[in-house]
Amino acid sequence: MFNLGWTEVVIVCVVAILIFGPKKIPELGSTFGKTLRSFKEGITKSEEVEEGDDRDFDG
Question: What is the reported pTM?
Answer without folding.
Answer: 0.55
